[in-house]
Design a protein that fits this description.
- By secondary structure, the chain is of the alpha+beta class.
- It contains 25 helices and 27 strands.
- It has a ten-stranded mixed β-sheet with strand order 3-6-5-4-7-2-1-10-13-12, with no helix packed on it.
- α3 (332-350) crosses α6 (396-413).
- It starts with 13 loop residues before the first strand and ends with a helix.
- The relative contact order is 0.07.
- The chain binds ligand BES and zinc ion (ZN).
């Protein structure tokens, strides 16, 4: 694939202090016009000024020196598509020092969900449009010329000219609303002029402006901050939950960081078309509908929990990211890793019954352990330059590994010092920029511990270690080495990386012991058996000899440690360091397990096994094993919520029913069919928390008729979680024709481009559908680039799920195809799935026989 050209940084030449910006979307021809004054400081006299700008037509440019009032008129403009800049060449020199740059511009409201774009929706049978922004990382330049770099912080005075019946929303509150008096009869009557208060000093990527017909709910929190939640018409009832979580999250962070939320108002807006989950624009946070809206009758517990986590994540950014911003995108992880950690702390505080930290271990740590086990991963701190490279690092390394590493240091320092250090860091760098080392510095200052030295291992090096435990005559010995999921990568690697590993365990009297282990070989003081990585707080895996593992199984371990054992034993099986049958034996000892997170791990392990060995003659036996594993659980839990049960039972029930039903449990299939028929005939929907399972079972066991019914439901659904739920079911059919139909449906008018992925992912993970999914990507690649934009981080979402393929020849095909494509910011994702696929093919070769033998004995 072609390499990206380096992009020049612009902040070196001039420093913007303030932008006065008038933005005028035109909903008739889907364009926008703008006027801009940039108050700036020129570092030296110059005849040319370079600004970031993409797809904007510029006019009426001149420059005025503030001291002398001398103006420079424009000579000409050159546009660089490659560098995403405009160069304004002046007729005579612009003097150094403070000055004002005037310009006007026009652009198109785009369709690709970035820059200033339009979103389409229906209300009462009428097609409607709203206009909104998505600037992170480098798309503010698509809405107005600017120095589009996080370090170029400035104050923004935004004025919007919008249709009179629209809501105009930006980062701050309106200070003046007037009538728009167009110069002549230009078809622009009926617009109003809304002037907003100046923003705090902030980065361009956090600016937002939105114009649309909206309704809202609002309330003040205990600190007097007004929180408002906006939706398109008819949906404000679904905004109540978000309002509560928003209010409480701000209170929590205000206290935790020791800094009050600095704006008087926080707006949260649900946008019908939205590329990612949500965006933390300061004071005007935007969300896709499924990440903000909750319908009390139809939204499942899991989706409600997701909404809470997303809100807590975005609101954390109001401090970590907005108040203090990374200097450059290399430190993106500071934003995303931190927010992905602290969202759990906030939610644990607001909803203690959810026991959300257990899910942190199951999700974030699980994701980090998987992605970072590849040779094709990257260090958390990674040099990036071109916008494509920047969008590429919005990945699980920045988010999940980042979050895990933060949790590791929080655990190492203890709650109090950690919190104090954060507060110091935020206060010290408020309204400014920071780098990773600045955070370590603050934590070191309050704790007196060598934070920087330990953490450098985790943020500057790729991967993580596996600790192997050996029993010798003299007790236990340990060795650490980098863990590779792929045996091919492990064998070809000469990696000798070492980490400072915080190792935690519980000794015989249940006292928690800690030690920093930093050698290739060594001992742990006072370790006398038991499970390592107690609480699963370190980013490591542990390999125990079978004899020790047996002893550990018999201990009464907390849920996260039980799940850790299963996770590591499956990973060791996949990587060829331990037989798969050992992991299967381990699962057998979990028959009476009650905890959701542990079952998630069991389901994941067996699910992967089914995927990888789906073409082997014994694949039906895996299905049988899954049914035998989950049917008893499903029967125990039943179809309806029980009073007083743990919150996570709602999710456990859905999973158990689906696993049992999809793997052939007759009684469960019959009940799912009954409930589905009742829904069709009488309109009585299955309970919200198990509706997903019903749809999936119906699809798995269904044919043409069910497919038609589900697509009909999809089109009729108003709630976007409901659409996602059905979309996922569309990918679960067995019949290849129907799976192809599902793929084509995902590209049809009935499915928003933002929602294609839930259908696609489901087909790609279905062993009957994964090759079809790959063919679909190959055939439509150019179309995807057109819809999602080259370089957008979204496009990698159609590649990631292909990692479920386990056929070496297909890996070669994928490799060949992408070699021929232009660079669009998916290089790393492609090499990652190739590594995964080849590792899986290897697993098949290596273990099919042994697994078959084990299965014949058990099923
Ligand atoms: N800053 C991101 C939004 C974003 C993502 C912008 C990718 C540009 C590229 C936001 O804070 C975020 O991380 N959103 C997550 C949700 C979160 C709960 C993990 C998302 O959109 O997936
Ligand atoms: Zn984020």
């Amino acid at each position: 694939m072609a390499k990206n050209k380096a992009h020049k940084r612009l902040l070196n030449n001039l420093k913007p202090d303030r932008y006065k910006l008038i933005i005028h979307p035109d909903f008739k021809d889907h364009t926008f016009r703008g006027e801009e004054v940039i108050f700036l400081t020129l570092k030296r006299p110059t005849k040319k000024i370079v600004l970031h700008s993409v797809n904007l037509k510029i006019s009426d440019v001149y420059f005025k020196n503030l001291k002398t009032a001398q103006t420079s008129t424009l000579y000409d403009i050159s546009y660089s598509v490659e560098q995403e800049t405009i160069t304004l060449n002046f007729a005579r020199v612009c003097k150094k020092g403070q000055g004002e740059l005037f310009l006007k511009f026009v652009g198109k409201l785009s369709d690709d969900m970035r820059g200033f774009y339009k979103s389409r929706y229906n209300h009462n049978g009428k097609e409607k449009f709203l206009a909104t922004t998505q600037f992170e990382s480098t798309d503010a330049r698509r809405a107005f010329p600017c120095i589009d770099e996080p370090e170029a912080k400035a104050v923004f005075d935004v004025t919007m000219i919008v249709p009179r019946h629209h809501e105009a929303i930006s980062n701050t509150m309106p200070i003046k609303i007037g009538e728009h008096l167009p110069a002549e009869a230009s078809g622009q009557a009926g617009y109003k002029v809304v002037e907003f208060a100046p923003t705090p000093k902030m980065s361009t990527y956090l600016l937002a402006f939105i114009s649309g017909e909206m309704e809202s709910v609002e309330g003040k929190n205990k600190d007097g901050v007004l929180v408002r939640v906006f939706t398109t018409h008819g949906k404000k009832k679904q905004a109540e939950f978000a309002l509560e979580v928003g209010k409480k999250s701000l209170e929590f962070y205000g206290k935790y960081f020791g800094i009050k939320y600095p704006l008087p108002v926080l707006d949260m807006i649900a946008i019908p078309d939205f590329a990612s989950g949500a965006m933390e624009n300061w004071g005007a946070v935007t969300y896709r509908e499924s990440a903000l809206l909750v319908d009390p009758d139809h939204t499942a517990a899991e989706d409600r929990q997701w909404v809470a986590l997303v809100i807590a994540h975005e609101l954390a950014h109001q401090w970590f990211g907005n108040l203090v911003t990374m200097k450059w995108w290399t430190d993106l992880w500071l934003n995303e890793g931190f927010a992905s950690y602290i969202e759990y702390l906030a939610i644990d505080n607001i909803f203690p019954k959810w026991q959300i930290w257990k899910q942190f271990v199951s999700r974030e740590l699980g994701i980090a352990l998987r992605l970072d086990s590849l040779a094709t991963t990257h260090p958390i701190e990674v040099p990036v330059n071109h916008p494509n490279e920047i969008s590429e690092i919005f990945d699980a390394v920045s988010y999940s590994k980042g979050a895990v590493v933060i949790r590791m240091i929080a655990e190492y320092l203890g709650e109090r010092d950690f919190q104090k250090g954060l507060s110091l860091y935020l206060k010290r760098h408020s309204y400014g920029n920071a780098e990773t080392k600045d955070l370590w510095q603050a934590l070191e200052e309050v704790s007196g511990k060598p934070v920087g030295k330990i953490m450098a291992d985790w943020t500057k090096q790729s991967g993580y270690p596996i600790l192997s435990v050996h029993k010798t005559g003299k007790g236990f010995e340990f060795n650490q080495s980098r863990f590779f999921m792929s045996p091919i990568s492990r064998k070809s690697s000469k990696d000798k990386t070492l980490w400072n590993v915080p190792v935690i365990w519980q000794n015989k009297s249940r006292k928690v012991r800690r030690e920093l282990f930093s050698k290739h070989f060594g001992r742990l003081n006072g370790f006398s058996g038991g499970k390592l990585n107690f609480g699963e707080t370190s980013l490591i895996r542990v390999d125990y000899p079978e004899s020790i593992l047996k002893n550990i199984e018999n201990l009464k371990l907390p849920a996260v440690d039980r799940l850790g054992l299963i996770r590591d034993s499956f990973a060791l099986a996949e990587s060829g360091q331990s037989p798969t049958t050992l992991a299967l034996n381990l699962i057998e000892s979990y028959k009476n397990e009650k905890e959701y997170v542990v079952w998630v791990e069991i389901s994941g392990g067996l699910g992967r096994l089914a995927q990888v060995f789906s073409e082997e003659s014994f694949s039906d036996r895996i299905k049988e094993l899954r049914r035998l594993t989950f049917s008893p659980l499903a029967k125990k839990l039943g179809w309806n919520p029980k009073r007083g049960e743990p919150f996570t039972n709602a999710m456990l029930r859905d999973m158990a029913l689906w696993e049992a039903g999809a793997n052939g449990d007759k009684t469960i299939i019959d009940e799912a069919k009954k409930q589905f028929t009742l829904y069709i005939k009488k309109g009585k929907a299955p309970h919200k928390d198990i509706r997903g399972a019903v749809y999936l079972i119906i699809a798995k066991c269904g044919g043409k008729k069910e497919f038609a019914q589900l697509t009909k439901f999809y089109k009729e659904a108003r709630l976007s979680d409901e659409k996602n739920r059905i979309g996922e079911a569309l990918g679960a059919f067995n019949d290849k024709n129907l799976l192809n139909k599902a793929l084509n449906f995902s590209l049809s008018k009935a499915v928003r481009p933002q929602d294609l992925f839930s259908i696609f992912r489901s087909v790609a993970r279905n062993s009957k559908g994964r090759l079809l999914a790959w063919q679909f990507v190959r055939k439509n690649w150019q179309k995807f680039i057109k819809i999602y934009g080259a370089g957008g981080h979204i496009i990698s979402k159609v590649i990631e799920p292909l990692g479920s393929i386990s056929d070496r020849r297909v890996a070669d095909e994928i490799e060949g195809f992408f070699k021929k494509q232009k660079s669009v910011g998916v290089e790393r994702t492609v090499s990652q799935i190739l590594e995964l696929i080849r590792a899986k093919a290897e697993w098949r070769n290596r273990e099919s026989k042994n697994i078959e033998k084990w299965l014949i004995e058990r099923t």
